[in-house]
């Protein structure tokens, strides 16, 4: 949950209707639940690839997120490696190596697309339901598949960890003060759904999972245009947007733009998905409420 330091923005958010989810979830789940649309299939990895490439995958695919499993006194702690901690060159070298060493007899295939990794398997296997970024700094065992009856998931993960042990990329990373990539977190495995036409509001987002779902429903998809004003000009009847925000300042600028649009009547109601476990619904009339609630969710005044 981001710390909202602007007192006016914090009061505005606190007057909305707040829902806290019991566990972290992908934005797609929260968006579809609010829109009263059918939930996505378990195969979020295939949707992510679809959103990245624009083409529907035709094979079984799982997402393979690079992670550092840190040994602690009596447990492992998962560290999601992304952004500055996971340069594309390192990711590419790791997946090229895994493809060369573990893809014998085409049992598996390892591929990198942009900043994301994937594993193809000839036979489906159980995988986690959670991407690594949602369980960063937590115990991985709590989020591993519970019914891996054949042991395929754990066997593949073990092979990957053995292959990555003392890999030259990891030696270079550690010399640069970066954590090693000592495992891949496999999640969202499955086949892409068949494309069908289901009415969805226009989407403005760079999130490949959201984009992949919208493409699977033949929805209107555009990248984030840079401002809420551009979204309003393109779709006055409503839309789903995921702003690109890099820090606390840009987050608060985006919130200020949303508050101004609501106050002016350009929009009558908005729903914010904040972090992985919070949804806030705010109507124009909420600005007139004089009581405060949900203060603990948005940080205290400093």
DSSP strand count = 11
Distance between the termini: 16 Å
The biggest sheet, with number of strands, parallel, antiparallel or mixed sense and barrel status, is: 5 strands, antiparallel
Query: What order do the helices and strands follow?
Result: HEHHEEHEEHHEEHEHEHEE
Q: What structural category arises from helix and sheet content? A: alpha+beta
Beta-strand content: 15-25%
Compute the gyration radius: what is it? 21 Å
What is the residue-mean pLDDT, rounded to a whole number?
88
Shape annotation: globular
How many distinct helices?
Answer: 9
Could you name the ranges where pLDDT drops below 50 across 5 or more consecutive residues? Answer: 288-292
DSSP helix fraction: 25-40%
What does this structure look like?
The chain is α+β, with helices and mostly antiparallel strands and 302 residues long. 31% of the residues lie in helices and 19% in strands. About 2% of the residues have low confidence. Strands 2, 3, 4, 5 and 6 form a 5-stranded antiparallel β-sheet that branches. Strands 1-11-10 form a 3-stranded antiparallel β-sheet, covered by helices on one side. A 3-stranded parallel β-sheet has the order 8-7-9. The relative contact order is 0.22. Helix 3 crosses helix 7 and helix 4 crosses helix 5. The protein is globular, with a radius of gyration of 21 Å.
């Amino acid at each position: 949950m981001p710390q909202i330091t602007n007192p006016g923005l914090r009061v505005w958010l606190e007057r909305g209707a707040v829902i806290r989810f019991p566990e972290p979830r992908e934005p797609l789940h929260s968006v579809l639940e609010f829109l009263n649309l059918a939930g996505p299939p378990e195969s979020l990895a295939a949707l992510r690839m679809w959103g990245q490439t624009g083409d529907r995958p035709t094979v079984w695919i799982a997402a393979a997120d690079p992670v550092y499993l840190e040994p602690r006194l009596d447990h492992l702690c998962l560290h999601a490696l992304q952004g500055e901690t996971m340069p594309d060159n390192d990711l590419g070298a790791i997946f090229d190596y895994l493809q060369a060493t573990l893809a014998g007899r085409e049992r598996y295939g390892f591929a990198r697309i942009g900043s994301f990794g994937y594993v193809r398997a000839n036979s489906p296997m159980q995988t986690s339901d959670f991407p690594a970024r949602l369980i960063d700094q937590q115990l991985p065992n709590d989020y591993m598949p519970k019914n891996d009856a054949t042991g395929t998931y754990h066997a593949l993960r073990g092979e990957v960890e053995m292959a990555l042990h003392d890999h030259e990329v990891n030696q270079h990373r550690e010399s640069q003060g970066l954590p090693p990539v000592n495992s891949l977190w496999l999640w969202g495995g499955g086949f892409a759904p068949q494309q069908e036409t289901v009415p969805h509001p226009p989407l403005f987002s760079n999130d490949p999972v959201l984009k992949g779902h919208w493409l699977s429903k033949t929805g209107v998809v555009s990248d984030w245009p840079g401002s809420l004003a551009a979204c309003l000009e393109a779709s006055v009847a409503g839309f789903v947007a995921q702003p690109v925000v890099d820090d606390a300042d840009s987050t608060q600028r985006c919130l200020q733009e949303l508050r101004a649009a609501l106050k002016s009547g350009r929009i009558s109601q908005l729903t914010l998905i904040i972090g992985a476990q919070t949804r806030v619904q705010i109507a124009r009339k909420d600005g007139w409420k004089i009581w405060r609630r949900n203060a603990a969710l948005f940080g205290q005044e400093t």
